[in-house]
Amino acid sequence: MDSPSTRSLELLALLQSGRRWTARDLAVRLRVSERTVRRDAMRLRDMGYDVSSRPGPGAVYALRPSMKIPPLLLGADEVSTIVTSLLVLEAWLPDDATAATARTKLEQVLPGRLRRRAAAVALSTQVLREAPASVDWELVGTIADAVAAGARLAFDYTDRQGRRSRRTVEPYRHLLRQQHWYLVAYDLDRDDWRLFRLDRIQVPATLPGPHGRHSFPWNSIHDWLASNFGANERRSADTSGRHP
Fold first, then answer.
1. Is residue 68 scored above 80 in pLDDT?
2. Taking the model in full, what pTM does it have?
3. Closest CA relative to residue 24, chosen from 16, 35, 13, 15
4. What is the pLDDT of residue 42?
5. Under a CB-based contact definition with an 8 Å cutoff, are residues 193 and 184 in contact?
6. Greater confidence, 130 or 27?
7. Which of 22, 27, 59, 101 has the smallest C-beta neighbourhood within 10 Å, fewest atoms?
8. What are the backbone angles phi and psi of residue 139, rounded to the nearest 5°?
């Protein structure tokens, strides 16, 4: 097992089967000692799961049959982090109910103790920050899927002068910068890396691969932005080329 959390998740999956497991059987399946099984079962109880066991050398473990297993295993600090992040999005995007809906659904699947922690974090947190522009989460998902699949993306784009064009790009990352969401992508028609504002993208379409992809040539997006989108490096190369 990679970690106690990963091991506990597998223990939950075994108990969810409805079978009554001896400590020895669980130890064999999880490739750990029986002592570790007892410790992991106690950890699940501390998190609010009703794991029953018969004391003694022949201990048998079971999960209360009526209990629904949430599809995630989180600690209190992880819940605090997720809830705080969602609260930031709620404050930044007051007209978008997506973050608030996600937080409500998260609270519904948490065990009692963690649900109380989530409610406490929400009660005690106040986010004060200028809100960025709203974001189209469907477009974010389309970009994410294209990046993960190595696919190209085609879309209509309106630049700052109001000119419209059809662009075909290799999407790399989307980011929040100066209260606006952007896409960093390699523009195939311009043969260069470009930055596109998400709220100016329309009619996106994924172009499945396989396609060869350009590697992002800077150490980080921050370095690229600081170099004026690579223009400083190009000017430096042109200058050095004039002097043998």
1. no
2. 0.58
3. 35
4. 86
5. yes
6. 27
7. 101
8. -65, -40
Distance CA 223, CA 212 (A): 24
pLDDT digit string (tens) for 115-168? 888 888 888 787 766 666 778 888 998 998 898 888 999 999 999 999 999 999
What lies within 8 Å, CB to CB, of 45 at 6+ separation is 51
Beta bridge partners of 155: 167
Indicate the pLDDT class of residue 2, thresholds 50, 70 and 90.
very low
* Token pair of 239 as six digits: 């200058």
